Amino acid sequence: MANINFKLYSLGCKVNHYDGANLQRLLLSAGFNLGLKPSFVIVNTCSVTKKAIVKDKQLISKIKKENPQARLVIMGCWPQTAGDVAEIIADKKAIIWGVGNLNALVKKLVGEFKPTLKSASDKKKSSLVLTDRSRYFLKVADGCNQFCSYCIIPHARGRLKSRALKELLKEAKEASEAGYREIVLCGIHLGRYGEDIKTKKVNLSNLIEELLKIKEIGRIRLSSIEINEVNSELVKLIAQEERLCKHLHISLQSGSTKILHLMNRPYTASYYRNRVLKIKEQIPEIAISTDIIVGFPQESEANFQETYEFARSLNFSKIHVFPFSAHEITAAYRLAGKINKTIINDRARILRNLSLQQEKKYQKEILKKYKNKPLYLIVEKSDVADKIRAKTEFGFDIYLNKKEENKHIFI
Q: What is the mean pLDDT of the chain?
């Protein structure tokens, strides 16, 4: 037996980063060590767009140059959908894995590298997936049933698979007791949590209600959710519960109903607008951020203008803009009417400028409202000397000096 070092890199979404951190926990428990001169390097890949795959390849190329003696382990969504990845990266010795079955991957790596086994007392019994943040990202489900025409995730991660409620409550309690002040609920299709659990009626609102019973939890935030899944029960919880962040990230993708139909999104533009206005009516200060794809096939200039005016009128707290870049196996890749890259980039720039304007406007309004009363904050790692970086419940960060710090309440 020997001391075996490894490195691990995760790309892509919060769920992928959770999986990577979970694998790291399992490897450390099995006797491996994080460190220099690794015997193997794991790349937990993303393939949501062609651009994401380019980033996978660039990182793998860099790792091969920096660690020529290390064995590559390529896992995640890219090998799940790309066929012979070992052939693509010109490395027949690479271990190709895919998504899930992390315990089996650890068992394989133990068999290959034979690390020094830890005694039972040394093994970490915690179920926590550790991060260096004050926030703990809790994966509540994997997979997706929606099959949007541009999205590879259902092909890579399969159908919805919700985790057991009891397991989630245990992990959230441990995370809070370990010092994490915010629990972020994440999943590929968060709003559908529990639909596949047949033994007991469980849904996202039930999960939140049970989590709020855990007194150690500082506050809870939701990651991305679909507009048709933000029901009255959930809105009521956000309005009433102080420990539930007033922030929803609701993907729009397009303000044109024609394009939404081509995307196979489960709503029209008018439905989205009406629901958002209703939410804001019930919770006036709520932060609503969104995702928008520009340059989708057949998106005319008029369609783009629809999207721009739609986004402008709803005053989002932030817009994440994505130039269209579909994977070959998605339906959108085969659509006629591809948009010129120069036009796509121009549209992306216009929407990003709008986002910057809306971010500043929203943050200014919130800070004015809280000028004479405290914000509830959690401390994050600061990148500014002599300033405390703190995250608001509304999703944006503020930087405080010592004098300003005393005005607020740190959870």
A: 91
pTM for the structure as a whole: 0.86
For 61, the enclosing helix (H) or strand (E) is: helix 50-66
Contact 56, 16 (CB under 8 A): no
The stretches of 85-227 forming alpha helices (DSSP H) are 85-88, 102-113, 153-157, 165-177, 204-212
Residue type, 194: G
Tabulate helix, strand, coil % of the chain (nearest 5).
Answer: 40, 20, 40
pLDDT category at 119 given cuts 50, 70, 90 is low
* Of the candidates 180, 171, 162, 166, the residue with the CA atom closest to the CA atom of residue 138: 171
In whole angstroms, give the CA distance from residue 49 to residue 291. 15
Contact 244, 236 (CB under 8 A): no
Specify the CATH number for 127-245; select among 3.40.50.150, 2.120.10.80, 3.30.750.210, 2.60.40.10: 3.30.750.210
In 3D space, the residue among 341, 351, 346, 343 whose CA is nearest the CA of residue 310 turns out to be 351
Q: Give the residue from 272, 219, 282, 227 showing the smallest Cα distance to 249.
A: 227
> Is 127-245 in the same CATH topology as 5-113?
no
How confident is the model over 347-370, as a mean pLDDT?
97
CATH number of the 5-113 domain? 3.40.50.280
For residues 49 and 154, the answer to whether their CB atoms sit within 8 Å is no
Other CB atoms within 10 A of residue 61 CB:
12
> Any idea which fold 252-369 has?
Transcription Regulator spoIIAA (3.30.750)
pLDDT category, 121, cuts 50, 70, 90?
Answer: very low
24 vs 122, more confident? 24
Phi, psi of 10 (to 5 degrees): -120, 135
Q: Compute the average pLDDT of residues 165-194.
A: 94
Which of 141-145, 212-216, 310-314 shows the lowest per-residue confidence on average (mean pLDDT)? 141-145
Question: Tokens 């382990």, residue?
Answer: 73
Task: Kindly state the tokens that stand for 384.
Answer: 């500014």
Specify the DSSP class assigned to residue 398: E
Domain boundaries, the chain: 5-113, 127-245, 252-369, 376-410
Whether 200 and 234 have beta carbons less than 8 Å apart is answered as: no
